[in-house]
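User: Can you predict the 3D structure of Catalase? Sequence below.
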Amino acid sequence: MPNKKPSKPKPRSQDFDVATGAGGETHQHVPHEGPHHADGHLSTNQGIRVSDNQNSLKSGSRGPALLEDFVLREKIFHFDHERIPERIVHARGSGAHGYFEVTRSLSDVSKANLFQKKGQKTPVFVRFSTVAGGAGSVDTPRDVRGFAVKFYTQEGNWDLVGNNIPVFFIQDAMKFPDLVHAVKMEADRAFPQAGSAHDTFWDFASLMPETTHMLMWAMSDRTIPRSLRMIEGFGVHTFKLVDAKGKVTFCKFHWKPRLGLQSTVWEEAVKLQSADNDYHRRDLWESIVNGNFPEWDLGVQLFDQAFADAQTYDVLDATKIVPEDDIPVRIVGRMVLDRNPDNFFAETEQVAFCPANIVPGIDFTDDPLLQGRLFSYLDTQKSRLGTANFHQLPINAPKCPYLNFQRDGQMQMNVPKGRANYEPNSLKEHGEIGGPRECPVTGFASTSDLGKNVSGDKLRVRAELFADHYSQARLFFLSQTENEQAHIASSFVFELSKVQLEGIPARMVANLRNVDEGLAKRVAAGIGIDLPAKAKAARRSVEMTPSDALSIQKNMKKTLEGRTVGVLVADGTDGAELKKLRAGIEAAGGAVKVVAPKVAKVALADGSTISADGQLAGTPSQLFDAIAVVISADGCAALLKESAAVQFVMDAYGHLKAVGSSDAAAPLLKKAGVEPGSGVTKLGNAFVEAAKSRYFEREPAVRTLA
Ligand code: HDE
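Assistant: Sure. Here are the predicted structure tokens for Catalase:
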């Protein structure tokens, strides 16, 4: 028998009673929390207490092992089956719990309960992910980031399964398997892992001009974020909001990070892969542990059919944005992530997002990409999680009651009572359980389309406006700063230089000539090919007005909040100087990590000792947003002989970060190639101020961009 009676999990402060808004759980079906969750006696899964967890049952002290040993057999059996298939895309992810709070009611356009009242809170679970790499791949390749949010609303679960880029590579679900096959590791050799810089991706992309707009975003710094806490999120598709009278308003969803947008530079992203495979996962986890809860504003762009009809693009085309200058983003809520998962597998791995999960007041549009997704996600969960009952897993179960006549299936956790597994039935009239009934008024009924004529000729075609693949790609490029444009050109050069099959880079550049001649020329020159003839465009482009909202650098926040300064010290460092620096950075909302040649017993000038947070050899400056070097003349002499110390400073400078230093550090800075200029300061207030920014104007001095 289990040593402890299984009991209902205790409510946690962060869990909401969705019915009342108060704390506490309202899961209708809470699986037993098994005895293995608690401290106590070890038992088998049948509840038999285990006397010895070190030795298998043998015949004699040296074996052979006995088949009878059910304790060993069960342990190994379960272990053998621990892994489940990883997601075909977005396999590597990191999750967190939190809540969504309404800051401005959306009741004027949507009847969705979660949007009605200012201050109203809804629990959420969020999973961020890379797309191409496997579950064990690194966190910082150049890749799109998934941004999937499950809202556990009072009316059922709503999943907003988005990305950190507002458009997508393709327009029709029919092409998704091709896209994914092309970008993932190549079929015969199983590399490269987690990156798009290879033959098959660019072969596909260059043959599919509809990818061009997304490629501009993918080659921008959006795909090498500094932190998951500093990315935007987008619902991508146009959705519908539906009010109580059935009136429809089109809607694009936006998540805007409170910490501002922040990216790394490419060389830094590459080096981060060796510095810390788990850079983003660790950053998310630690910020929550430290109480620095990541936060986003939820914004909506709202428009009607008349606006949609008047545009030069189709709002049902997922390769297009609606510029914020045309339809401003209305902020309606905020999301705070304040709790790490208790168990990665049970929550982050088993969470099953389905764009088809919507609630009354939110509706789909006919976007052909979205329509394909409505099928795919439900389907994939069955193969990943092995049963149609995956919705019963605690992380997937709604926090409001759910009742229907669906029954049985593998891993059925619920125990429905009575005979009522069909409807209509009259069992209630006979004193038995009759089961749930339809709710014509409050139930989901596709309220926006119901009764509308949706017939049409059967066709396999794309709508006419979908054929403009370049206008918005050009809009994006022209909206960037000069430095961001150079980053885009350089990314194309980097990626296409990895392509070995002849003709593919030229075909890509031929497409880019439709975006911007200057860009195409720079990319051609960068990879060393002649400028190819311009690709034929299926439809004439229209010139759109550049939009500042599309640039990261034009929207960066000058702040130390959520940022970390790496402080390099050595024996002989002035403790008072270090203390003052730490106080200044912390007062500005930043964090400090001390790096030293040895982690324990760093001897300060006054004879006292401190411990460092990281050892120099394993803590390169990629891990920080700015660096300070606080050393004595002796310390400097010692560090001059350490290539890791020189590299620490050189990389921070090369990655356009603020570099502050005590006077005695001058020889080290010189050896690292640091030149005077913006972002290079003495310690003190000047450094604290400088550490709030990156110095893109320094870039021409440290590398040649395309
Ligand atoms: Fe996905 N996508 N997708 N996708 N997607 C999956 O579902 C799919 C698309 C996105 O953290 C899969 O549970 C099709 C756009 C995220 O668990 C799968 C099409 C956007 C995640 C699937 C798309 C996304 C997925 C794989 C084209 C941005 C991770 C595992 C019609 C709006 C969710 C899974 C998580 C995951 C299919 C296109 C975002 C196979 C068929 C566009 C964030 O069902």
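The chain has 19 helices and 18 strands. The chain has a mean pLDDT of 94.
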